[in-house]
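ugh finaly. both done.
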Amino acid sequence: MQIVRFTSPLTGADAVGIDDGEQVVELSGITTVGELLRLSSGELRERCAAADGPGHPSSAVRRLAPVDGRMEVWAAGVTYRRSREARVLESERAADVYELVYDAERPELFFKSVAWKVSGDGGRISVRADSEIDVPEPELGLVLNSAGEIVGYTVVDDVSSRTIEGVNPLYLPQAKIYLGACAVGPAIRPAWEVADPYALDITLTIARAGETVWDGKASTSQLNRRLDDLAGYLYRADSFPDGAVLATGTCLVPDLPFTLRDGDTVTIGIGEIGTLTTDVVKGLDAMR
């Protein structure tokens, strides 16, 4: 079962529903994912089980990014050994910063995107025109309700400029927060259907002109943090009335000097969660 945000074939309006693989049934009375995430975990599970709105063939539904309204996307950094190694390698002056945060009690958390900037499955991601090396970062996303409970999982691409962050870690917002730097989807897999979120395979494939130019596979078993701890730090001094998505860090980073190019296709798969595919464009104008 997946919780999906989509364009209703009946009305053309955005809707939220339950997809069983064959049919999407709308959640009557729920118009946004944010509304659903105001519910407790137990209430949300009951609401999903009681989906009673119009039904549509799954193949006829155009899915949207499962992030809307006042929802925000945040991300955790340096949570896998591979991520630590990549950050140290690319950093020119502050490699020790990444070494220290990997083992620190407090995780690195940073804001990634407001809902309206997030791309969904089949959408576009962008590399900055003022950056030379840019990469996708495939990550397991925690879907958190307003109380900070992990109620679901999704796939996140934390697109990043290695050029900009590598010069100075204080440039991280410019390297990671811009139009086209965040993709989420294709849907939300309810947490109660995932037996072990620490045993999920993650794959990344980058295609160029129809040929695979980079691919890799890893697992959430390599994560150096507890998922509930990451969520707890995010909600420790902040409020998310319509919930949030928290990307949990990447374990797949192409070796330098690999970079995304205009026209590439990025496919991220996470076992039991779904597959997120996006096309790469370059620069702000291509995203408008």
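ok and the 2nd:
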Amino acid sequence: MEPPSREMETTLFEKAMLGKWDEVVNICTENPMALVSSITRLQDTALHLAVSDGQEQTVRKLTEIISEQPNPEMVLGVANKRGNTPLHFAALMGNVAMCKRIAVVDSSLIALRNHEGETPLFMAVLFGKKEAFQCLAQMLTLDEVYSCSRRKNGDTILHSAISGDHFDLALHIIKLFGEGLVNAVNEEGIAPLHLLAEKPSAFPSGSRLGFFNRIIYHCIYVINDDHKDVVPHDYYDPQLPMLPVDQGRPKYERNRPNYPDNYRTCVNFFRLFWNFITFGMYYVTGRCFSFFS
């Protein structure tokens, strides 16, 4: 099969820029070699552009064409001028569907590095895309995830998560690796805890919050991963009896307000405020009644 001509590459670029993705797919179907053609100044391919534009259906169709070719992982691993593959783009965008679609062809694509030494797994953390990180990490062994978690300057994914203020993701990484990354240092000898210490705003003692901001701070809802159900949400066992929600609970716990524990500060504050207003109204009404009587 002959490589695409310069004219075909120009046409492919123009169709992509105009959003005519069906025509892009048709061109690549007729000449699969067009899938490895660099059609922008940054040497992006049609798949790079489709991922960047969030075209999930186009990405699905193009990956299906690529999967039918010899060595599909080489086609999907074509990098642009900065060393980024289409999977890098999908990871930094946090698009889980496109990450799955590309990585399922060959999980080794998750370990490919750009010119900064960043893997798609690293890129997901760099941009705070927790779902994309989890998606890619689930396709690798723990050792493989660990090997993908450093870039050229020695920064780990934990360094990156803390630097970007993605603390929820950082906590998830710590739970995944334990002390393996907590004590890791980069080329400058900086550990993730050093970076955290440089962010006093991450702690209440390091921020001068006003009265109402302190209330909001204590009312922020934090999801606790430790209490997530182990059984998938779509699991159903017909042998289990259907019991009322309150059955089996002590009487004093039944019919209690259904809000997270850390909302209690907010609820108690508004209760106090409401009681104050109610008492004031009764007091003013009583004074007025005694004045006119």
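summary for the 2nd one i guess: Residues 208-227+247-293 form one domain.
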